[in-house]
Fold each of these.
Amino acid sequence: MSARPDARFRARTKGGWTPAFDWGPQAISPIRRAAGDDNHPVVEALAELQRGRDFYAKRKWADAHESLAAADQATPLRAEDLELLARSGYMLGRDDDYVNGLERAYHAHVESGEPLGGVRCAWWIGHNFLFRGERGPARGWFARGQRLLERERRDCVERGYVLIAALLEHVFAGDHEAAHATAVEIAGIGERFGDQDLVAMGMMEQGHALVRQGRTQEGLRLVDETMVAVTAGELSPIVAGIVYCNTIAFCQSVYDLRRAREWTAALTRWCKQQPDMVAHNGLCLVHRAQLMTLGGTWPDALAELRRLGERFTEGVLNQRALGHAAYQLGEVNRLQGQFEAAEAAYRKASRFGCEPQPGLALLRLAEGNRDAAAAAIRRAVGEITQPLKRAALLPAYVEIMLAVGDVEAAHSACRELDEIAERQGTNLLGAMAAQARGELALAEGEAQAALVALRRACQAWQELDAPHEAARGRVLLGVTCRSLGDEDTAELELEAARGVFAELGAAPALAWVDSVTGQAAPAGDQGLTARELEVLRLVAVGKTNREIASTLVISERTVARHLQNIFAKLRVSSRTAASAFAFEHDLV
């Protein structure tokens, strides 16, 4: 045997060492016979390669990457296997490995006389650069793929992939009709050549373009049809992940909460089937946390956001997710009354390039800094022109404008929100618009109009399973009923709202409802209720939760809830700090 047996199986090419023999499964037995030794390095490399292919088929990404990399180190892989190595790296969040692997595969395809394989690699490289925000390299690779395609004077499926680059340019330019026409052509090419990935991406973009043109239900039906292909396992892993995340983000952007919840549940199941996947898990956790926040399961939302920060930080998709996760963390902290933590989270979101509004403006309002809140929300609304993106800001804009006495601005925002909600036709937008309209009517003393709008809003929030928003609506309903002289109904609404806020641990909202009902403590006590003051005094003299529960004849769980509210209202994080406050303000 030669001292360098692998030299028999390699050839030197312009692009570097590439295999001079077939790496296919059928090649293993002949090479084993030729080598006469199962432990021969080439036989071992071929076995490692087959293991890598098997792991890839089973979506065991870490094992697949390890085996394919080992085989590649022994003898450089062919283009098809280099693509498997690259995709495994992508699923593990290793974007550099992904691009490097595809670049090698591109050159291998071209040098072996397979330019269409090179076209696909060029497109996927450009796609990755585009998502990184590097549009120059992205356009360069798209152009390289286009140039290769132009040399092939025949119809082929790769033409559909190249068209996606043109489609994305139409989307960025806001030309929804051109985007739709291009998406139709892409899906048609995919159907003609039996490429399910291309069909799915074309149909998805058709749906998005139709919704952006105002043809909402028609577009969403196409989105649903696309998702059937994903959940049925008909798509490649990378395309499945892209379609999942794009669709959920799109459903949220058009305020279709039902679809967002359904497809997020499906994405969660898909992620669980691939426990070592990193690439799409971050966005999945953010989507889940957003829905949990709206649904009132705030501890679960915080747990999801912590998981993201601890594990899913690699890859361009996860880097994007970190900004949205920071904003969502700010939202939960703001709702709980943890204002310092909320501000830190909003600032982190901004560092990741995520707009911290309207959360930061609402935080300033909660802190009593109305001028800062108004300046921030006016700036944010002034920058956005797309109606659906403006809709996310308008409810906060109405609330803050009413707080600073700019009723005319609040009127204008309500009209705009009504128009968007009517055009889009989703329950979530309808609830947002009705609540804003009710707030405005209440501020103007139009109690009957406020009653109708707020009742509609509360019903919609309850149907959407959004307890915090529903409780906010009930507080406003209580105030409206009181203005109409109906004290019994007012008391029922306010009592129900207070119970929800207490259960959620929504300290600022609790302080608000207590101020409305007259249960708040005197000025200087930071809005503590009479019961919370009792708990604080007992904490200050060293009583445990069990002792406090026994003294006040309440449960330890209720004591813990009161403490959470006390800490939030006083902006402290310990019993020691709360006790210091009690002594400083002569409450003991």
Note: The beta strands are 10-13, 16-19.
Amino acid sequence: MPTERDAARQPQFLDFGKQNAIFDNVHGFIQLTDIEIKLINTQEFQRLRNIRQLGLLNYIFPGAVHTRFNHSIGVLHIVDKMVASLQQKGHLHDGEENRQILRLAGLLHDIGHYPWSHVTEHVVINNLRKTIRSFPTDDDTIIVTGSLEGGLSQTALPNQGKKELLQSSESHHINKSFHEPRNQSLDFAHHERIASLVIEKTEIKDILSGRYSPEEIKKISQIIAGTTPSIEKSLIHSELDADRFDYLLRDSKQTGVTYGLFDLDQIIRNLDYSEDAPEGTSGFFIRKKGKKAVEDYLLARYFLYSTVIYQKTSIGFHKMANIVYEGLLERGEIESYFDILGFFDDGGNIEDFYNYNDLTIIQKIQDVSKGNITLENGGEYNRDMNLIKDCCDKIITRTPLKLVMEKQRIVNKTDTATQFDNYVKEPAVINEVVRLAGIEKYWYIPSEIKSSITNLSPLIPIDGNDINPRDKEEGILIGNEKNEPILVVTDDSLIINQLADSSLKINAIYTKNDAYKGKILDAIEQYRTAG
């Protein structure tokens, strides 16, 4: 006897209705299926309209107001084109239903994103890691086990209480049981993992359950987080994935520059997969005819990042956003991972998640700036209340940090630190310069970015820390004369071969204003002379 779910599968699976299309300014008309339209119309997905793709970059490039909403639909579109290309080459022949599942993974891949995208995510992940590492135990039970009894009822707890809270949270149990390969990294708060909570604990689950089994729904979450060992995850988790393809084209168009443009169709046309690919790679490779398009893609990515994403004023604004979120989070004024679990656990309020977006963060910053939120200092806080207040004022009035010094260069990955690096990295040097300058230490704001030219990260960096486990040195593969996969950086006919051992390194120092800049420069000169 056919079940209700079986009946839902009977119509043509990718039957695009006449009204089921969205016009996208990057890809043109994108056709959607009925289930995709239902998901897009949920509050969970509509929330992405209020999360900007590039955080505060619109302060410098006014057109950069595009959102995770636009980007997610674009990723669905590119995933489908990649699947069609791979099917022509004998891969992913699991039926039209699997094609639909892969499209849904593309559509929902950012459903768990944070306000201001990666800027705040970085803070929440580090806060959770620090909390877990402080638990008074040597065992790993918090990572790999846990009871399903109870739920969340408190958010401001001592660390032992937070451990018990994680052990009792059903949402945390889902997170760690779905994505065990990532558990040791303690990145439970990563937006790709939060996506599984949104999928499992909201209306999205109800919509998907009308058509898919629990295991199939779980597969969507695992494709998004890259925790399923299959070719499917590479569509969203690789150096050649739909996520990267879309954000490069979209970010380039919205910022008004041409640096991020590349020939997407040529890359997808030549996309292939090999189970015999070198260890540590995704298995995706581009056939020989498309290797110049891949080189263009890598160079376009480098130029977009070095010119737009790493623009000095943008980094300054995102440093301030990072400082504010960290300061408010450690004072319990803004959401931590424990609060996010509370959105989804029994007894929580899912409406709070719908409102967890850029607008909420801006309102919180305005409240601090106006004095509606009173901040305190104390030994337990890393961020001074005066610094937080000043940064809130600057964000509201669009007043950038003052750049004291910056040095951007291409270096060998094994190069040792220079004297300038010491002013950014060495605590003893920084302490002495601050003493000579006679300023508050918190207004000496160093920044270091170091990214492989052939493997740039898809996040706006705040410092040299990488929060995304998929952004390891992986390397793009191309086909050789026999169309066997080799690393693109080993092909000596390509310019990118000469950059394989190089990194883009940007060191900078920011401060409060011109007066503080002058004091720091004078202090650095005194330090150099004395040295």
Note: The longest helix spans residues 68-88.
Amino acid sequence: MNVFKFLNFMRRHTAMTAVALIIAPTVHAAEIETGIPDLKVRWDNTVNVSTGFRVKDRSNKLIGSNVGGNNVDFGANQDDGDRNFGKGVISERLDLLTELEVGTWDYGVRLSGAAWYDRIYNQKTDHNSPNTSNRTLAGLSSNGFPNATRKQHGKNAELLDAFVWGKFDAVDKPVTLRLGKHSLVYGETVFYGANGIADAQGPIDLVKMISLPGTKFKDVLRPTEQVSASMQVSPEISLGAYYQFKWRDSKIPGVGSYLSTSDYVGPGKEFYISTPGTNGSTPNADKKPEDTGQFGVQLLASPGDGDWQFGFYGARYHAKTPSAMYNEGFVNPGGGPVPSQYRWMYAQNIKTAGASATTSIGNVNVAAEGSVRWNAPLNSDPQANIGAGNLGTGSGDNASNPLYAVGRTGHLNLSAITVLEPSSMWDGGSVVGEYAFNRTMSVTRNRGALDTNTTSNASSLRVLFSPAYFQVLPGLDLEVPMGVGYNFAGRSSAVANFNGGASNAGDFRLGLKGTYQSDWEFGINYIGYFGKTGTYLETLPTTQGAQLSFDQALKDRDFVTLNVKRAF
């Protein structure tokens, strides 16, 4: 899309923006007077209007046939997200975030919710290959989104925070308590929460994370039902703990959405195609973890003059993203057992312990966090859950007999954050960087299921450089975020989709962000991907099927986003 076509498109597609911004001022933010001393009521609303554009044509290598030795067309199961969007518009979205807080200095309640509508996900797609559409075997049109995908990306509303909090003394020590649906982050990770202690603490919005590379982990952590508490034992020591009442899974891209690379995992998963246009297996209900059994503790210490802070952590949790796929419900049509169903499993009862340290050196804050996990799911290939006589469903589960590989893993995150001093090149800003390393230290069960293309060690680096320019015009501040994430060593067996899942590959972001009179924000970002082009799964040269490729499955999906945001 050249500049003139782009500007013409924006001129013709501003109706939604105009309507939203005209209506928005009727939604007021204010501290509402209650007439009760010390009782504060605040209601904030944010309207965000955004659009996105695909700037590259589809790659034949990513949408072409990829038939394995067992005659399963793996390419047909990885192309819907790519085929659904031609070059041009991929999103026209309106978001509303509303937040209500009521309380005194000591007690209160917080509620927040979100609603959204995206016109693109409420119409037909550009898919033009019925034989490789996972919807076709279900008797549905190839050029439509699955209902669950349409709901997640196109039109829905949800409750986010819903909790009460209180501050009081217990045994003469100040305590803060939260009860209800909220999020909590332990540890020192900035970007790589999946590689740190924070992986234990809740589901994440993976869609938000990959839509804007460089988003901090704390900004994508989703709330869950729990009770959490912290106690200031002394000026130097504090204790924290939480217990979760409900397991919730992470929000991953819906099947057929723009950044989806698999047609058989996530909201909207449909038939897994064995032979294009002919047969496949249907999705069975995922085996999800129990709601109970997730908890954690932390101890923070700032000894002496407080220049250093040390943290010690322990947690038990269940995986928030799928750990393995099972082929099951086998039938024997005469040529050998073939699966009629598949399902995804989530690992349970993962244990982790770790420690962290952070300090400031000049105007640079540096931090390190290390942890170990036991009973952790490892990157495994799809497994056959076969019962007696190769028919029916076997005994595989996500706990005592997972079938997929399980082991002990080690994790290290090193980060640095600095504030840019004013200079001739910028007025301020920041540089944030984080290095992440993980290692599979031992495989304790099902070594044969471990993907043979993985390595024991893997490393990744992400840097976000954001120079700022103040009062460019009266009331207008600008920021120029530029970032890159690069998996430069190894193919992680310890963390699934480690920083996007591609090896010797990654993503980059070039942007411009503006703030006008504190209430208005606008932004434009170019998101791109680099590395060897290839689908998420690749075909093995024998009848063994497929393995993880660690290639860049998003290589042809560079895109541009624009947004305007108004807070009230």
Note: The CA atoms of residues 42 and 425 lie 39 Å apart.
